[in-house]
Structures are given as C-alpha cells and as structure tokens.
Amino acid sequence: MFRATIFACLALAAFCAPVPDVPNSVDDIPTEYKSLIPKEVVDHLQSITPEERKALKEVAQRYKEFKSEQDFLDALKVKSPSLHEKAQKLHNLVEEKIKNLNDEAKAFVKKLIADVRKIHGAYLKGEKPSLDSLKKSVKTYIDEYKSLSDGAKASIAKEFPILTGLAKNEKVKAIIGKYIN
C-alpha cells in the first residue's frame, strides 16, 4: 500500500523541483492527475499571473545555483515578490501539515523528505541516481512505513490524504510494483 506513497514522494520531489519547463496553466496537467492535486495547490497554480510565470521560468532556469529550497524562495522574492508570497504560502501549508503529524509520523516524514531532497540535489548536480538505488530507497521506506504504529499511519493519512489515496489505488500500486520489484 505504501509503495505508491513513497513513489509519489519521489515523484513529488521531481515535480516540485525548480525546472525550466513550467506548465502554462492547470489545464496543461493531464486530467487523470488533476484530481490528485490538493485544492490549495490547484488554487495556487491558477493564481499565478503570466508575469509571475515568466519570473518563475527565469528563476527556475538558474536551479543549479540554489543550495536549498530557501535559496530558491529568496531568488523568487527578488524576481517577483508577489510570486514569492504565493510560493511561501504553499511552502507553509506543507510545513504545517508536517507539524500536525504525531511525533513518530513526523520523524518518518522528515527523514523521507530529507532523503528525497538529497536525491533531488544530486540529480540537479548531474548525478542521476541509478534505478537500483531508487528501488532500494523505496523498499527501505516501505519497510519503515510498515513498521510504524497504527497511530503514525493514521496521522499521515489525516494530513496527507491524497498520498494515502494514491497508496490505495490499485492502478498506481500495479505500476509502482512493476518498477520496484
């Protein structure tokens, strides 16, 4: 069940990365994925103006310069204060969800995010992780998730229902199972 969640987190790292190709609108996102995007994220995407989109593309093209998420946000602030405010609001939303987790779930999610950021950072430096190393990471987190208490799993489900929904989706589980087995 949690394979989909781990895979989604790894995919999220790729999608959240500052990259040169930014969708022009929510309409550019394939229909089957739109329903998986939280309302706050859709609202955020829809609120980005053409000028902000241009600023985002310009900053994203410099992604190799940024050592951290905060560096990226700071660059956004310089280029477009209004876009920075929107991005910071979204960042804070995720941070709040993490803060609301119980201690066990919080430790697990923080470790997962740190590892995903490490993989993403290596990727941005041109060090593409091997499929085997990604599979190993996913399997490790699946095992760690399985060892969590029911309370920690419920805490994650409460704060991140979309990921939990993905984890329960049979099509998603089949696709992920094909890649990590």
Automatic annotation (TrEMBL):
GO (cellular component) term, any one: extracellular region
GO molecular function: lipid binding
Domain of life: Eukaryota
Main location, first listed in the record: secreted
Signal peptide: 1-16
Pfam family, one: Gp-FAR-1
Keyword field: Coiled coil, Lipid-binding, Secreted, Signal
UniProt-annotated location(s): Secreted
Coiled-coil parts of chain: 84-111
PANTHER family for the chain: FATTY-ACID AND RETINOL-BINDING PROTEIN 1 (PTHR31418)
Family to which this protein belongs: Belongs to the fatty-acid and retinol-binding protein (FARBP) family.
Name used for this protein in its record: Fatty-acid and retinol-binding protein 1
Species this protein is from: Caenorhabditis angaria
